[in-house]
Amino acid sequence: MKKIELLAAVLALLAGGIQSCTKGPDPADGREMTVRLNLDGDFDIDLQQDPLTRAGSTNDAYGINVYYDKEGDGIQDDRYAYGVFDNTADMTITLLSNHKYKVVCTLVKDAKNTLYFGQAFGNAYSGYAYPFQTSASGSTLVGNKFIIGTSDILSGMSSGNAHIAATTSPSAGNATPNASVNRFYGETSDYEPVPNGTINVYLKRVVFGAKFVISGVKEGTLKVTCGDFFDKTYSADNEGSPAIYSFTDIYTCWQKETPLAAEISFTYTSNRGTLWDITQSQTIQFRRNVMTTVNVRLTPDLSGGLFELEEEPLDEENIIDMGINTDGLIDIIVNPES
Questions:
Q1: Burial of 316 (0-12, 13-18, 19+ CB in 10 A)
Q2: Which residues 6+ apart lie within 8 Å of 194 measured at CB?
Q3: Helix, strand, or coil (residue 25)
Q4: At 92, phi and psi to the nearest 5?
Q5: Domain chopping of the chain, boundaries
Q6: What are phi and psi of 66, to 5 degrees?
Q7: Which tens digit of pLDDT belongs to each residue from 5-27?
């Protein structure tokens, strides 16, 4: 019996020696390093809205995806972790050395008051839906920690769609396009972890502003629609109110600051008969962090010339004057304000 026990012990030692030779502290395997995220950005820009507070408010929500080069080839497209936070102090994560990482983050200011939070996608628990739903179409809790080693990610971060607070029974098909929420987005890539390191992510505000001012509606109704974000019918003059909207493609706005081209349509229905009715449309552009005021003036019985659109350099505010004549023509002049 002692010989058998001795033989077993020897075999165990040999196995341990072989394992240590094949799986020892090889630098290629990487060692764990805890780092923190530092978020900065244009948080204080005001598009004629209520003043924005600095990031970190407990009403804000941050969605974060982390990718890495699993094969060590520098291509950071393998899923590493994700998380939803309302406290920036909790944004720490353990990474592996000898890999490069990409961090993608979106912030919704005042998310707890502007986004839907409840049961969604058939889940029994409550959580956020778009833009914080997972790739499994599951609502997501605010965990203030990273979920590491999962195939899931937050899959709605690059889209301007969101389930706003007024949404009932959220599903993949009923998110609000160009949602009127205060969105930010940023990425950083090629990060190589160091002990107690910091990953800096700069977030751009990825919204545009729009205000529609209506005048000249003496009788009848004027229906104004613009893109997927504005649809209203007027029976009298209206001074309008400024509002912000998320870009349709959040990623492209962040990367290239490409303006949003939206079709604005007018349908005027006169009480005097169809002779005075008007239906007309035209494409206009909305730029990131610019409040665009669209002045719509209904002018009766004016001789109309050619449609005119003048593009000039834009500042923080852009005013578009649109005169609609009852002969069915629209005159537009774009006048930047300093």
A1: middle
A2: 33, 35
A3: coil
A4: -120, 150
A5: 28-205, 208-337
A6: -125, 130
A7: 443 443 343 444 433 333 322 34
